[in-house]
Amino acid sequence: MLAMELLWQMLGQMGTLLYTPVFWLAVGLVYLQTRRWAHMRQALFQLRRETIAGRVAATVAIGMVGGLFASVLLFLLGVSVDQIGLFYVWAVALLLMLFRQRFFCFAYAGGILALCNVLWGWPVLQSHQLLLLVAILHCTEAFLVLCSGHLQAVPIYLCDKQQRITGGFLLQMAWPLPLVMLFTLDNAVVQPQAGFLLLPEWWPVLGGGHGSTLLYILVPVLAALGYSDLAVCHSLRQKTRQSAMVLAIYSISLCLLVWITKDNGLWMLLPALFAPLGHEAVIFYGRRQERCGVSHFIAPEHGVLVLDVQHGSPAARAGLRSEDWIFQLNGAAVENRKHFLSQQYLLPQKTTVRYLRKGKSHQCILRMGRWSQPGIITAPDSQCDLYWSMVEDEGIAKFLYKKLAKTLKKV
């Protein structure tokens, strides 16, 4: 009964965020990012303009589910928004972003602040609660990546380690995350009243109890999570499952380290160091998997390999999807990618497609309607002269310096 009451309170607090301008600002940013990646897909592969409202709605809805998931974990582990030094975390995260954009993550800022707190007692915050927040946010990110990390994937052509032109996907996602967190009050100053929580004796689950002089209320907090990755040696589904698993291992490991060391003084240095270093290991592992593995989307000698299918296109409606190998159109053999590209704008209103999926032969019907081409993005071959080069992540400071130098040069 208590669990249901808490859940309803959380949902009610989350609902209040829907009426705030900042929430709709976050939704607007999601819309702009979704539109940007849609335009990039269209420009790179000369695709028809697509509707993005459904994708934006799905992203926001999944973010709200993720927010409830994170809120429940934050409550169970007893993380209070007033005890984690949120102002300091944001300040350090923004400062780190000047050096590398990927450093704009609570794993780095939280680890640095926890180290400073354990070694010098400044800033004043609860190190174990801050690191638990880091763990929960990355556990939530794992959940969101597994559910929707593939939604905004942009197909790209790039050069692999064997100097072959291969296909891949650039994965970019951002979710608005409406959270509900605890706020701590002292009952010597504030008298209990309606809205204050009655907490069970077992809370929080990692132990420590909740002192009799403390009162708790739930407050809404709007956050956001982002995900960026590259899929070259894996399919989209394989990559998102792998990324989600690695993030889950990282978050669970950090949570266990905090649990073991939270009452042991200097031993808290272990989770404080693991937060940023473990996150670096996660990134290194993901990049190594994509740079050192075998490219997944290489054009076959005959026919064409589907890299991606445009949403709502004749190919999508016919059931074609990434990794299908098309070898026939209306009974005529597809010789190679160049032959397919020359034929795709000449297809009749009804076209029979023969293809292989996981070694089994299938057939589908393309119904073109008002579409001038089927909406198929093929894996590249050696004749492609336009491909993407992987560049090192740079910070905001270096980016602004380049822009300033370019402007001064023109002047």
Description of the structure:
There is one protein chain. With 411 residues, the chain is α+β, with helices and mostly antiparallel strands. 46% of the residues lie in helices and 19% in strands. The chain has helices at residues 2-17, 21-45, 53-76, 86-96, 106-120, 127-148, 236-261, 269-292, 314-318, 337-343, 396-410, and strands at residues 154-159, 165-186, 214-231, 304-309, 325-329, 332-333, 350-357, 360-367, 376-378. Strands 4, 5, 6, 7, 8 and 9 form a six-stranded antiparallel β-sheet that branches. The chain has a three-stranded antiparallel β-sheet with strand order 1-2-3. Helix 1 packs across helix 3, helix 5 (106-120) packs antiparallel against helix 8 (269-292) and helix 6 runs antiparallel to helix 7 (236-261). The longest helix is centred in the middle third of the chain and has 26 residues, at 236-261. The model has no long low-confidence stretch (mean pLDDT 87).
Keywords:
alpha+beta, six-stranded antiparallel sheet, single chain, 411 residues, three-stranded antiparallel sheet
